[in-house]
């Protein structure tokens, strides 16, 4: 029973979470697609997402993943049209991101909108859009999340951080007990210093390694953890 409990706990540890797309308003969705002159068949609807802006009244950030070709069972590609709309869906700002997001063996699972307080200077507050990926292999679990940062400028946006990896989870095990997991989790901290008029971004990353093996009928775990830091600076175009 003890081996069963510990094996079950390890299974739970190895399971990576799947981020489902946030809920959105059907009426607003219809208004948005009409303005963009898109049919729903041209959009990956399960990845379409929106979130109310906490700092601007009657405003929603919307991510419209436009399909590049057909939505196939074994893979697809999208490019995002990013919007700010009012509550009814009327577009205030629009940005077509040139980054192509692909999904094949590693599945593009969702986009999530981060409206945390990314106050980059006295007048600019950015928001984030995170692309979340999920592997399909049980013996070799994998997931990752990459964030991009944008801020509104007139009727469009400026992209100032491009697909920075915030989280990677990877593992290998024997489907019973023995195996190992490595995970990198990063957070963005606003620094007190600036470069080219924009706050520096300090990245704090925790690297976690977990090893399990069966010893005398028990599934035992060993864990190590360490932190590292790096600073991203604005080079007048983007954070590097």
Write a brief caption for the model:
It contains two helices and eleven strands. The protein has helices at residues 2-14, 26-36; strands at residues 49-52, 60-67, 76-85, 91-103, 106-119, 125-135, 142-153, 156-173, 179-195, 198-215, 218-232. The strands form two sheets. A seven-stranded antiparallel β-sheet has the order 5-6-7-8-9-10-11. It has a four-stranded antiparallel β-sheet with strand order 1-2-3-4, with no helix packed on it.
- The total count of helices amounts to 2
Low-confidence stretches: 1-21
Inertia-based shape: globular
Strand content: over 45%
Mean pLDDT equals: 91
Helix and strand element order:
HHEEEEEEEEEEE
N-end to C-end Cα span = 51 Å
Helix proportion = 10-25%
The count of strands amounts to 11
- Class computed from helices, strands and strand pairing: mainly beta
Biggest sheet: strand arrangement: 5-6-7-8-9-10-11
Largest sheet: 7 strands, antiparallel
Radius of gyration: 21 Å
Structural summary, described in words:
- The chain is mostly beta strands.
- Helix content is 10%, strand content 58%.
- It is built from two helices and eleven strands, in the order ααβββββββββββ.
- The protein has helices at residues 2-14, 26-36, and strands spanning 49-52, 60-67, 76-85, 91-103, 106-119, 125-135, 142-153, 156-173, 179-195, 198-215, 218-232.
- The strands form two sheets. Strands 5-6-7-8-9-10-11 form a seven-stranded antiparallel β-sheet. It has a four-stranded antiparallel β-sheet with strand order 1-2-3-4, with no helix packed on it.
- The longest helix is centred in the first third of the chain and has 13 residues, at 2-14.
- The protein is globular.
